[in-house]
């Protein structure tokens, strides 16, 4: 079985990777997260996902770029109802299409590990994209392993971010000033 694991960041990939490897499931990882802003953070999370891939001996496919202007300019409320619905749609559309065009049996995402995301909406978007592109969607509720995964990330020294990713979530973060200082350190 060949699976494509879309990954949002290193820490969130740790438990899903551990789970898939324990289950004997073969997978490649895909980085496609244009929602991560600003550029410094996009690079930082990408680099840390590479470390997580290396830790498990897995291939990381890297696609896309930081798209802060797109997020700022998108009239997502009309089309999607919320910026997060738009965010899931953009990322899962790419992941499903990439999986279909590159011969994977199915795809899934590390977004399904987070208790802070809209889990049911992510699964619904994934199912719709799987139908759209004619590829399987492998649903897992990774959430029970979230804390374990974060601890695994800490143990191997991964950077663990304090905001979801987009420029709006940064502006809303209680840690905004500290995060912005870290961009210049
Ligand atoms: S808060 Fe998170 S899920 Fe929502 S749009 Fe921003 S990065 Fe995407």
CATH class: Alpha Beta
Which sequence of SSEs, written as H and E, runs from N to C? Answer: EHEHEHHHEHEHHH
Q: Widest sheet: strand order? A: 3-2-1-4-5
Note poorly predicted spans.
none
CATH superfamily: HUPs
Bound molecule types: iron/sulfur cluster
The fraction of residues in strands falls at 5-15%
Give the CA-based shape.
globular
Number of strands: 5
CATH architecture: 3-Layer(aba) Sandwich
**SSE-based structural type:** alpha/beta
- Number of helical runs? 9
Provide a descriptive summary of the structure in words.
This protein has 185 residues and is an alpha/beta fold. The protein has one domain (2-160): Rossmann fold (3-Layer(aba) Sandwich). The protein is built from nine helices and five strands, in the order βαβαβαααβαβααα. The protein has a five-stranded parallel β-sheet, with helices on both faces. Strand 2 (26-31), helix 2 and strand 3 form a beta-alpha-beta unit. Helix 1 packs parallel to helix 2, helix 1 (10-22) packs across helix 7 (146-155) and helix 5 (83-101) runs parallel beside helix 6 (119-133). The longest helix has 19 residues, at 83-101. The protein is globular. The structure holds iron/sulfur cluster (SF4). Residues 35, 83-84, 87, 164-166, 168-169 line the site of iron/sulfur cluster.
């Amino acid at each position: 079985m060949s699976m494509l694991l879309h990954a949002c960041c290193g820490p969130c990939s740790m438990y899903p990777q551990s789970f898939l490897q324990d289950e004997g499931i073969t997978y490649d990882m895909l980085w496609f997260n244009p929602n991560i802003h600003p550029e410094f953070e996009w690079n930082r999370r990408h680099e840390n996902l590479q470390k997580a891939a290396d830790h498990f001996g897995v291939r990381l496919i890297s696609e896309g770029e930081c798209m802060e202007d797109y997020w700022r300019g998108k009239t997502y409320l009309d089309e999607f109802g919320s910026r997060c619905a738009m965010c899931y749609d953009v990322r899962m559309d790419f992941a499903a299409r990439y999986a279909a065009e590159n011969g994977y049996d199915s795809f899934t995402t590390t977004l399904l590990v987070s208790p802070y995301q809209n889990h049911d909406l992510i699964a619904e978007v994934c199912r719709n994209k799987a139908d759209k592109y004619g590829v399987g969607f492998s649903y897992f509720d990774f959430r029970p392993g979230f804390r374990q995964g974060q601890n695994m990330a800490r143990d191997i020294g991964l950077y663990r971010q304090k905001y979801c990713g987009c420029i709006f979530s940064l502006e809303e973060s209680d840690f905004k000033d500290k995060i912005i200082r870290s961009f210049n350190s």
